[in-house]
Amino acid sequence: MKIIEIIENEPRVSHKIIAKNTKVQEKNVVELVDKYIIQLKKFGLIPFQTEKTENRGRPSKTYYLNEQQATLLLMLR
61-77: per-residue pLDDT in tens? Predict the structure, then answer.
């Protein structure tokens, strides 16, 4: 898994990488993104990918944040 990915010609980090490197559960990072989505969007759109889960449950989203969004998210946690 890459730490930084280029998405829409911009370096991005996924919420999963943030969770792993801050030792915070992924679901908690997603909750923060959802809670502060309006503030995060002030720094640009938040692209995401939807992936099917193995157990046929709800599809999961992977958010990709730019540097300003990731910084803000880390300050809010």
Answer: 999 999 999 999 999 87
DSSP string, the chain: --SSEEETTEEEEEHHHHHHHHT--HHHHHHHHHHTHHHHHTT----EEEE--TTS-SPEEEEEE-HHHHHHHHHH-
- What gap in Å lies between CA 33 and CA 37, rounded to an integer? 5
Q: Tokens 């915070």 — which residue?
A: 24
Token readout for 1 is 């898994």
Question: What is the pTM (predicted TM-score) of this model?
Answer: 0.88
